Amino acid sequence: MQTKIFTEQKLEEVSIQLPASKSISNRALIVQALTGQTIELKNLSQAKDTLILQDLLSHDSADKNVGMAGTAARFLCAFLSTKERTFRVDGEERMRQRPMQDLLNALEKLGASINYLDQNGFLPVEINGRHTKGGELAIDASVSSQFVSALMLIAPKLPGGLTIQLQGELVSKPYILMTQSVLAHFGIAVNFSSNSIHIPEQRFIPTPLTIESDWSSASYFYSALCLLDEGSLLLKNLSFNSWQGDEICADIYFRLGIRSTKQGDDVLLEKTGQVTHYLRYDFSDCPDLAQTAICTCVGLGVAGEFSGLHTLRNKETDRISAMQNELRKLNWSLEEKEPNRFLLQRKVEKHPIDLNINTYNDHRMAMAFAPLTICYNQLTIENLDVVNKSFPNFWKEMKKIGVS
Question: Are 295 and 289 a contacting pair, CB within 8 Å?
C-alpha cells in the first residue's frame, strides 16, 4: 500500500536541495593542494568523505587516517607520493580491506617508496615521494576508476608528465572523463584515447569553481517519485550539462515512469504513467545508481536483468551480498545467473516479510532502501546517520515528501 501525502500542499510545490558533488569536490581539493594556493571553491560538498579529505590536506601531520573514505584514500596516497617526506596512511577496518594494490604498484613504478605496515596491497602504508617522477606505466582499469583518476590528478606535477596505458575492461569511464573535465577547468591538457591517457608536465591555473549538485543523490528522489501515487518534484541547482556520468539516471528513470525537464537552473521530475515491464541495464559506467534502481524495481514490482555490478563488491561493504540479503527479506531475489549477469525477480516461495533493513554501515544501502518506506508500511532502516558520508541532509529532504 502506497503512502498518501500532502493533503493541503501540492507535491509540485516541493523543492529538493541536493548536496554538492563530492566526486568533483574531492578532485578540486587535490588540485588546490597541488597548486599550494587557495582556490575559490563554491558550494563545496559537506559530505563526510570530503570533510575528511579537506582536513587531511589542511594539516601537515605525518599520520593520515581516512576513516571509511575510499576516494580520499586513493587520491591522498597519490598526492602524498609527490611529497619529499614520509607519511603514514591508514583507515577503518573496512577501508583496510579495500584493494589498493594496483595504485600503490603504479606509484612505486614512478619512484615513490611504499612500505606496507600490515598486508601487502592494503592500508596501512608508509609513503615517501622523494624520488617520484613521471614516465609511462600500465594499470588494470577494470578494478577501480579511482586509481586512474588519482594518477591523472598528480600527472601535471610529475617531471616529464605521465602516460597511462589502460589494461582490461575500463570501468566507470565517466569518472575518468570527470577528472579530465576538472583538470581542463584548471588549465591542464589531457590527451585521452581509447586505452591511453597522456598528460604532459604543466602548471595548474588556479580558477574559481562552483561545484555542481550531485546526480547520484538525485536518483533517490527519482526513485521516491516512482513509488508515489502522483505528484512531481523540483530538484534544485541540477545541470544536464554535467561533468557527472550519473546524469544518465534521467534516462534510466524515464523507463521507470519519470520525465525530466530543465527548468532554469533546476530539473523538474514528473510522472508519465508509462513503466517498463522488465528493466535491462548495464551499470558499468554508473555503479552508484545500481542499488537505487534495483530497489525502485522492487517497489514497482518490475523484474529485471543487470550487469556491470562487479565493482560493487569492493565498496563500503560487499554491496551485492548486502542487496541480496536485504531483498530476500522482502521476498525478492537478486541472483547471479552467470558472471556479471544478475536477475531480479520475486521469490516463488514466499516467507514472512522482515521490515528491518540493515545498512552494513553503507550510506548507499540506507538511501537506496529509503523510498521503499512508501510501499512497505513500517519499513525500518538501521543506522540512519550513515548517510552523512555523502548526503548529511538526506532525511531532512526525504521528509518533505513524506518519508520520515
Answer: no
The answer to whether domain 11-19+213-399 and domain 22-210 are alike in fold is yes
Mean pLDDT across 259-271 = 96
Sign of CA pseudo-dihedral 112, 118, 121, 124: negative
Q: What is the pLDDT of residue 112?
A: 98
| Mean pLDDT of the region 246-263 | 97
Q: How confident is the model at residue 316 (pLDDT cuts 50, 70, 90)?
A: confident
State the residue for C-alpha cell 545498512: 359
The whole model's pTM is what? 0.92
Q: What are the strands, taking DSSP E only, across 66-122?
A: 86-90, 113-116
Give me the pLDDT at residue 4, please.
33
Contact 252, 275 (CB under 8 A): no
Catalytic residue among 102, 285, 288, 362: 288
CATH superfamily to which 11-19+213-399 belongs: Enolpyruvate transferase domain (3.65.10.10)
Strands 196-199 and 162-167: what pairing? antiparallel
Name the band, by pLDDT with cuts 50, 70 and 90, for residue 13. Answer: low
Q: Which residue has the higher pLDDT, 116 or 168?
A: 116
Q: Residue 293 corresponds to which amino acid?
A: A
Q: What is the DSSP letter of 248?
A: G
CATH code, residues 22-210 = 3.65.10.10
pLDDT class for 314, splitting at 50, 70, 90? confident
Q: Reply yes or no on whether 285 is catalytic.
A: no
The span from the CA of 181 to the CA of 31, in Å, is: 12
Q: Which helix (H) or strand (E) holds 30?
A: helix 22-35
Number of other residues whose CB lies within 10 A of the CB of residue 40: 10
**Residue 199: CB atoms within 10 Å:** 25
Domain boundaries, the chain: 11-19+213-399, 22-210
Q: What is the 3-state secondary structure (H, E, C) of 50-68?
A: HHHHHHHHHCCCCEEECCC
The upper half-sphere exposure of residue 50, i.e. CA atoms within 13 Å in the direction of its Cβ, equals 22
